[in-house]
């Protein structure tokens, strides 16, 4: 089986529990075809960069999927005909990310990449 990251944007006029029901519905499609959803993240109602089908905001949801390609294709087919989903994107990845995604990770944590050093190796 392959690993996928799938993000969809649902319409702004849905209730949060309706967005959860959509996520459950598409997770069930994956599980029916022999895959599993390893992580679900609801990023909440966010502003869109531009209007999509008269929507200025949308509910973003991320799903990490471990499934055969046929299961993902079936899920995408169902999403294309669903009027509540305004955009979606599925990407095949080498491995699934553990822990929270970059959207939910704490922003005040300083990593080694953020620390600057001078030519003597001393931290600024």
Number of DSSP helical runs = 2
Strand content is 35-45%
Radius of gyration (CA) equals 18 Å
**Main sheet: strand order:** 2-3-1-4
Describe this structure in words.
The protein has a single domain (2-95), classed as 2-Layer Sandwich (Alpha-Beta Plaits). 24% of the residues lie in helices and 40% in strands. It is built from two helices and four strands. The protein has a four-stranded antiparallel sheet with strand order 2-3-1-4, covered by helices on one side. β2 and β3 form a beta hairpin. The chain is globular and about 60 Å long.
Summarize the structure.
With about 120 residues, this protein is α+β, with helices and mostly antiparallel strands. About 25% of the residues lie in helices and about 40% in strands.
Keywords:
2 helices, Alpha-Beta Plaits, 40% strand
Describe the protein's topology.
Blueprint: E1 2-11, H1 16-32, E2 36-52, E3 55-67, H2 69-81, E4 85-93
Antiparallel strand pairs: 1-3, 1-4, 2-3
